[in-house]
Amino acid sequence: MKLRIINGPNLNLLGKREPEIYGGKSFEDYFKDLQIKYNHIELSYVQSNIEGELITHIQDADTMYDGIILNAAAYTHTSVGIGDAVGAIEIPVIEVHISNTFGREEFRHQSYISKYAKGVILGFGLQSYDLAIQSFL
Ligand code: DQA
């Protein structure tokens, strides 16, 4: 099993960025925990702040992985292009969010990705990624 985690803008700042919302741990550290916990799965991750790069990562993953765990961050709420990319590929995509976006500002309630996602997991902190991995097992 090969899973690709794709993180969008500002998620490189996890641990420093609004820790009351996103927690105090960097994604690099959390990713190491995931690799230890799921050592029988080939996990890889990539982060970009650039919309077009995220679209390319989604397209490229289609032939190389069994599934994508996608946190498109702020682009979730704005990007028709990322939504279209998720709709265009064959492998399942699980949309994840660290925070409960429905408990936050109104503009975070809209997602251009959910329509094409196999499922959506949000509000469990970094554990949202772990739950998404479990959905593939
Ligand atoms: C987020 C929620 C988004 O609304 C926000 O723009 C993010 C992170 C989350 O994981 O909770 O950057 O996707």
From TrEMBL:
It catalyses: 3-dehydroquinate = 3-dehydroshikimate + H2O. It is an enzyme of class 4 (lyase). Keywords: Amino-acid biosynthesis, Aromatic amino acid biosynthesis, Lyase. GO terms for biological process: amino acid biosynthetic process; aromatic amino acid family biosynthetic process; chorismate biosynthetic process; quinate catabolic process. GO terms for molecular function: 3-dehydroquinate dehydratase activity. The record marks R17 as: Transition state stabilizer. Substrate binds at N71, H77, D84, I98, S99, R108. Pathway: Metabolic intermediate biosynthesis; chorismate biosynthesis; chorismate from D-erythrose 4-phosphate and phosphoenolpyruvate: step 3/7. SUPFAM superfamilies: Type II 3-dehydroquinate dehydratase. The active site is at Y22 (proton acceptor), H97 (proton donor). PANTHER family: CATABOLIC 3-DEHYDROQUINASE. Homododecamer. Belongs to the type-II 3-dehydroquinase family. Catalyzes a trans-dehydration via an enolate intermediate. NCBIfam families: aroQ (TIGR01088), PRK05395.1-2 (NF003805), PRK05395.1-3 (NF003806), PRK05395.1-4 (NF003807). This is 3-dehydroquinate dehydratase. The gene is aroQ.
